[in-house]
Amino acid sequence: MARYVFITGGVVSSLGKGLASAALGALLQARGFSVRLRKLDPYLNVDPGTMSPFEHGEVFVTDDGAETDLDLGHYERFTGVACRKTDSVSSGRIYSNVLEKERRGDYLGKTIQVIPHVTNEIKDFLRVGDEEVDFMLCEIGGTVGDIEGLPFFEAIRQFAHEKPRGECIFMHLTLLPYLAASGELKTKPTQHSVKELQSIGIAPDVLVCRSEHPIPEREREKIALFCNVRKEAVVAAYDLKSIYEAPLAYHREGLDQAVLDAFGISPAPRPNLEKWLDVQDRIHNTDGEVNVAIVGKYIQLEDAYKSIKEALTHGGMANRVKVNVQWVDAEDFDREDVGERLSGYHAILVPGGFGERGTEGKIKAAQFARERKVPYLGICLGMQMAVIEAARNVAGVARAGSEEFDHEKGEKRFEPVVYHLKEWVQGNHTVSRKADDDKGGTMRLGAYSANLKEGSKVAEVYGATVIEERHRHRYEVDLKYKDKLESCGLVFSGMSPDGRLPEIVEWKDHPWFIGVQYHPELKSKPFDPHPLFADFIRAAVDTSRLV
Ligand code: GLN
What's the CA angle centered on 350, arms 456 and 497, to 5 degrees? Predict the structure, then answer.
């Protein structure tokens, strides 16, 4: 049976609960324990799949096809443990399950209430797979005191109450604001936040205090006394240059020791931190830098491309260079000259996206990269745009476009080189979709394998001919155009196992031009950079040496 750590936050949002949870997971692993991380989100959307990236940041997709919160990306990047559908839940999902059961008559005519029906549903979610790992780390989204978070807090209180003593602990993150006028760190918000938790029956065992300044011993003692936690369990979290320093920084501050102490695990196994020391070394000891342009649509909120940004950083770490990312709004190319805007970058990345807005700019970016021989990585929509560019400007399909844009406008303007996929094979069964299905969850989602063409660039980059990557899209490149495009030099170097779905394209006579229908960024880790990103940055380094 797993031991449980519940991670909550108070005072303000965005304190880095996800990062603290992920770093704790990494530290427990370093001490030889197995872990799984979980996120409980209080919002009412059933999942983040249909939420705008402007609202919620990136949608993180798991191998088993769940569209989840971007914190799960942190969990995977720090622990290497692949998240599953059962590692992310929202109030919306919980209520929808309860209501479904109610309609089915599962509750035998009882009155359905938050306690016990909703809280039981949450507790069932917490228990899934508890026999598989040593520690289950469960993060509650939002801050204590939020109305919508209450059922979750009540459920974790009950859960800990029902478990034998010592099997669950609570870790609470707060902020110690600094008042410049008096030169002091203020502990009162932390005290209030802990009171709020205590008023709903939860007493924190470990307090993680975010602070921009060193926490004096005196303040630490005060927090410990007033919040009823041991002094060693008041852990400081200071701002870091890179998020990947978090495991070592938290270890220095005693987080993993405090957690193991709270469980009474003594003596605690010694940690092996080699992996993180290497990561730290790669961050600090770089030789040179490269400039990469990301030509996208959701550039106002960098979180919308969180995993891509991180994967580029990992690519930099693999090559020991600093990667400077410049966000370029694809719509700027409606007004500006692409050449002027994109020259000077050592590589161009066009990420995934939905809808027509900005796509003509992305097509121009792909054309620029092809003609000027600048390394190009097209991801999902970025691959589709590269294919459309090739069709229009090289293969002579003047009206080439994606059916997605015609669907959006409700008129037929394009020749659909990228078309709506209605049926595909997953493993050994066929999945079908209608054009007018619900927007939520009607995509080709999750892990699919692909066969790589022997001797192709991607086969060389991966060092393999069979790969498995995660997908999240509705449209596909139409196989009908394969021969025509290949005769122009655009190689279809990765295909679905049944040979029907193009997964990867690459230009033959180009130093590095690859488009992938999937999202390689989701599987990249700081200690195991994704081969495509590692090699893309290597190519960028080559370009930087040419100029
Ligand atoms: N909008 C495109 C599709 O649905 C691409 C999606 C993506 O980039 N994730 O196929």
Answer: 40
